[in-house]
Structures are given as structure tokens and as C-alpha cells.
């Protein structure tokens, strides 16, 4: 019955007559199709299409709750406020600090995280602490095993495109909605199939080195290690170069530790064997 309290999460509430239209035209997620008991990943992008802020979003009462890293909240709130102009939208922060994530027999009444649902795991997100004392490492193990990356641990903000962290596949990108900030770049990557960096699950032949270590093939970097638990971790890599290495039997290493890499099974992705075969 695993359930973990993630202390460094905080909340922004957005309500008002035009809240849904305001957010729908600004962030990556399709809010029209967002279910009443569903939490989806989302992002506010730079005009160049990279992730400026990331968060989870779900319906709450007549408005929406945005769950984000505590260190991001004030900057995200300020940026959202800049876009309000004359829209009938109200912003506020919640006093609740942290969130309880639960899965298996411990699933509670919070919204279900669509990222885990793709991996056939029912995981709920309920604001506040709810008396569970399982360690955060259990959640990290679950995330890593299913290729679910988070900012600050697996990638730096303003450094990745949504496709890099599988937002095109986990409910975080809406491709049938209208324009939003960075949408042109995201759509071009989708339609041209030019996404060559992806999250992979890394398994070491020994304990993995520290986060931030390069994954290399023949001494040349193909990606960077993110979260790790023992000999397992996540990395964002060039899948064309990883595919070539796998096809040719060339070792992939992380600071001298030989590793294997795999794409999350739920993603439906596979490694191309040549650079010109890489696609989304």
C-alpha cells in the first residue's frame, strides 16, 4: 500500500468566468478534454518551444489547481499574471504545502495522474499530508521504472522540448487545440517527426554515478543522467545515436559504468538503427 508525501510541491488556483479559455490558449494541455478526475502534465513554453515552467493540472470546483515545484510557484504565478490582460481570471496560491501520491491498494480520492495511467498504474495526487510515511525513494523507483521525468531532477527548465520528456505521449500536449505559446515549434516537431531526444530508462552493470553524468558512446556524449536509485536511473538521450550503438554492439557508458538503455514500454517508441531513421 505505497503512499508518499512529496513535501516540495505547492499550488496555484485559477478560477473565474474565463479561466478555462485563458489557460487553454496559453499552456500545452488540451483542457477541453480534461476529465473531472484526471491530472495531466502541462507546461508553459518559451516562444522557441522549450519548457519554461512545468506543472500538473486538474479541475477543482469551478476552476483549476496547478501543482508545481515550490521553487517555481511564485515565478510561474507572476508569468501567468502577465498574460491575463483583461481576461476574467482570478489567481491565488494555496496554503497547503506538499502532496500525497498513492498507488496500488493505497489509492485515495485525488485525481489520477495521466502519466502513470499510460503505464497502467492508478496513481492519485492529493494535496497535503495524509498520514503516510513511505519514503520518497519508493516514488522515485516507480517513476524511474516507468520513464517519468521531472524538472530539477531529470532536466533543467528552458533546456528541453516537451517531446524530449514524452509530453506528446503522456497527455501533456494537445495537438487539436488552437495556438498557445511555443505551439508552432511543437507542431512542427510532431508533424515532421524530428524529435531525436527522448527519456530512456538506464540500467547499470554497477551502481550508477551521480546525476548530471554524461552517457557516452566511444567517448562522445549522447545524453545526460538524471534521477538514479542504485543501478537504475533516467536519462534524456539522442535516440538515433543510442540506436546506432545498440545495433552495432558498441558499449554505452556513464563514467566508466557500462549501461543498457530502454524506452518506456508504454510509449510505443523504438530506437532507430541509423541517424536518418530517428523519428517521434
List keywords for this structure.
280 residues, alpha+beta, Gyrase A, domain 2, Elongation Factor Tu (Ef-tu), domain 3, 2 domains, six-stranded mixed beta sheet, six-stranded antiparallel beta barrel, 15 strands, globular, CAF17_C, YgfZ/GcvT, Folate-binding protein, YgfZ/GCV_T_CS
Tell me what the structure shows.
The protein has 280 residues and is α+β, with helices and mostly antiparallel strands. The protein folds into two domains: 3-135 and 166-187, Probable tRNA modification gtpase trme, domain 1 (Gyrase A, domain 2); 196-277, Beta Barrel (Elongation Factor Tu (Ef-tu), domain 3), CATH 2.40.30. It has helices at residues 19-24, 73-82, 114-117, 136-145, 183-192, 239-248, and strands at residues 3-6, 9-15, 38-45, 51-60, 63-69, 90-93, 99-103, 112-113, 123-127, 197-204, 214-217, 220-229, 232-238, 252-254, 257-262. A six-stranded mixed β-sheet has the order 6-2-5-4-3-8.
SSE ordering = EEHEEEHEEEHEHHEEEEHEE
Q: At CATH's second level, what is the architecture of the largest domain?
A: 2-Layer Sandwich
Q: What's the rounded overall pLDDT mean? A: 93
Helical segment tally?
Answer: 6
Report the major sheet: 6 strands, mixed
Topology:
Elements: E1 3-6, E2 9-15, H1 19-24, E3 38-45, E4 51-60, E5 63-69, H2 73-82, E6 90-93, E7 99-103, E8 112-113, H3 114-117, E9 123-127, H4 136-145, H5 183-192, E10 197-204, E11 214-217, E12 220-229, E13 232-238, H6 239-248, E14 252-254, E15 257-262
Parallel strand pairs: 3-8
Antiparallel strand pairs: 1-7, 2-5, 2-6, 3-4, 4-5, 7-9, 10-13, 10-15, 11-12, 11-14, 12-13, 14-15
Amino acid at each position: 500500500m505505497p503512499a508518499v508525501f512529496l513535501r516540495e510541491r505547492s499550488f496555484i488556483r485559477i478560477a473565474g468566468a474565463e479561466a478555462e479559455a485563458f489557460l487553454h490558449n496559453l499552456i500545452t494541455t488540451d483542457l477541453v478534454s480534461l476529465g473531472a478526475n484526471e491530472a495531466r502534465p502541462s507546461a508553459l513554453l518559451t516562444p522557441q518551444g522549450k519548457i519554461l515552467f512545468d506543472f500538473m493540472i486538474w479541475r477543482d470546483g469551478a476552476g483549476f489547481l496547478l501543482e508545481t515545484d515550490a521553487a517555481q510557484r511564485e515565478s510561474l504565478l507572476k508569468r501567468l499574471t502577465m498574460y491575463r490582460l483583461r481576461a476574467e481570471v482570478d489567481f491565488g496560491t494555496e496554503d497547503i504545502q506538499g502532496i500525497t501520491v498513492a498507488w496500488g491498494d493505497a489509492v485515495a480520492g485525488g485525481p489520477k495522474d495521466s502519466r502513470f495511467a499510460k503505464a497502467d498504474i492508478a496513481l492519485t495526487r492529493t494535496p497535503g499530508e495524509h498520514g503516510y510515511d513511505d519514503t520518497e525513494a519508493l516514488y522515485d523507483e516507480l517513476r524511474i521504472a516507468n520513464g517519468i521525468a521531472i524538472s530539477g531532477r531529470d532536466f533543467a527548465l528552458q533546456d528541453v522540448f516537451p517531446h524530449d520528456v514524452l509530453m506528446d505521449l503522456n497527455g501533456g500536449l494537445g495537438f487539436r487545440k488552437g495556438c498557445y505559446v511555443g505551439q508552432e515549434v511543437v507542431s512542427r516537431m510532431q508533424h515532421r517527426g524530428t524529435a531525436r531526444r527522448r527519456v530512456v530508462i538506464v540500467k547499470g552493470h554497477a551502481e550508477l554515478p551521480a546525476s548530471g553524468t554524461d552517457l557516452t558512446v566511444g567517448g562522445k556524449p549522447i545524453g545526460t543522467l538524471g534521477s538514479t536509485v542504485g543501478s537504475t536511473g533516467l536519462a534524456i538521450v539522442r535516440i538515433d545515436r543510442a540506436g546506432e550503438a545498440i545495433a552495432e554492439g558498441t558499449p554505452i557508458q556513464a563514467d566508466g559504468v557500462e549501461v543498457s538503455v530502454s524506452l518506456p514500454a508504454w510509449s510505443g517508441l523504438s530506437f532507430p538503427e541509423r541517424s536518418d531513421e530517428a523519428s517521434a
